[in-house]
Amino acid sequence: MAEFELQEKIEAFLLEKMPPAERADFEARLLVDADLAEKVDDFRLVFRATDRLAQLNLQQDFKKWKSEIDQNEAFENSKTAEKRPIWAGFLIFLTVVGLVFLVWFFGKKTEIAPEISKPNLENPTNQKTDESKTEKIETENSPQNHVEKTPVRKNLPQAKAEKTDGKLIALARKEQSLLLSEIVTRGSGGNLMGEKTAISAAREALKNGRAGEVLKILEKFSEGDADFLEVLLLRGAAFFELENYGMAAENFEKCLVLKPENDLAEYQLLLCYLAGGAGFEQKLAALFEKIKSDPEHVYRANAEILREKI
Predict the structure, then answer these.
(1) Cβ atoms of residues 207 and 261 within 8 Å
(2) pTM here?
(3) Phi and psi dihedrals of 215, rounded to 5?
(4) How confident is the model over 219-262, as pLDDT tens digits?
(5) Which residues contact residue 193 at a Cβ distance below 8 angstroms, ignoring those fewer than 6 apart?
(6) 13: how many CB neighbours lie within 10 A of its CB?
(7) Of 212, 206, 52, which is closest to residue 129 (Cα–Cα)?
């Protein structure tokens, strides 16, 4: 057998490419042919060395490939890092523009809103005040009222509740509410009110909280009428309910001119001075002392308690 053919057979044997029958014959020859067995061992060593060399080359190639891949990734990352600041800056710019627009938009709405609601904030009780003013104007402008009115004295200012201590007004109005039942029933201390239909209607209106109506009903009365004392009491109470403490005080003072011993009118006058605030301090102090000095005064104890509270 030629040497070349023998090497091919050994290579086919070692690579397990030999057919089974031929392989069995070849293995049988190895048992009896020492030279053939030695050549097979030599080829086996060569194959192992070749495999080892191939593995080493493959490892080197793998390392080379891995290095190239790492370099490519680093290059791509550097390009991404270069692009990122541009996009980040653009996003920051859009955010700032959006915030500026929102601040401008809501600031404009805030400027418009107060202009719309300003009238309501200036006078939250606008409707009630307007009704009260209308009633007062109608009462003061009526012909009958001009006949019976005397010039308003300068020492009785038209006091307003907002310029007076809220605590004093509350005390005065609380006492006034307790006296209303006496005003609408007892009146001046004479005959029961009700002799005249107009006075009965005014008394009923005051009882039900319609102070403006009271003034309209009583505007036809004048100082010469027999029941004018009751008229003054009702009008004073109505003006008090409308928070016109100056006009209320004027009516109660007229009551005391007609009947100085009228304790109810005197105590009502005290409450007007108390609620009126500025301009009434001296009159209030003097009236407190006057009531205190009268042991028979019906409202002496009430006045003392009221004075302690203020």
Answers:
(1) no
(2) 0.42
(3) -65, -35
(4) 888 888 878 888 999 999 999 999 999 999 999 999 999 999 99
(5) 184, 185, 187, 199, 200, 203, 227, 230
(6) 18
(7) 212
